Amino acid sequence: MKLYQSPSSPFARKVLVAAHERGIADQIEFALMAGIRNGELAADNPLAKVPSLVLDDGTAIYDSLVIVSYFDGLGAGPALIPSDPAARTTVLVRHALANGMMDAAVASVMETRRPDDKIWPDFIQDQHGKVTRGLDTLEGDVAAMGDDVDISTLSVACALGYIDFRLGDMGWRNGRPALAAWYEGFAKRPSMIGTVPSNPPSA
Questions:
Q1: Domain of 175?
Q2: Which of 93, 118, 159, 189 could form a disulfide with 101 if both were Cys (CB 3.0 to 4.6 A apart)?
Q3: What is the pLDDT of residues 25-56, one digit of tens each?
Q4: Helix, coil or strand: residue 3
């Protein structure tokens, strides 16, 4: 399998953490950034977005939720997406919240990279508002998350890791002691330690 990914993408990190949790990370070939820039990614995924997984038979799988769902059929360990209908709904709703926080955080960061006269501060404020409301919701949901390892908890952890990486000045831990304590514990998992975000190589 070949995985197109960026070391700074929280969505790609979600997939990488899932691969480690399922014990299949060593079965994945990681596509270099050059392969993404030269159009190779677009040939496999018309949306040209990471993460994208290409199987040995050439089948392309995207986006991150679908890739994690595919990983659930490989490796071993508890399913990352529960089969029980009630549990599945709970997990997928929490995943949607974490994923939306990632979307908002990434969008706010990308907005700051536009020319100064093109940056829309109201847009950034709106995206940060989504992140803040998500954080507040998660603070009240920590007890339900507990020690579970599923697509929702690993997505929450990757969202928080991205906020630390790109939006550290938000001070998200302030007033959210339960969420901060939960993240401190989850971030010690080998799957998280081995996938800490970094800036893509410049060449």
A1: 85-193
A2: 159
A3: 999 998 876 657 678 888 899 998 999 999 99
A4: strand
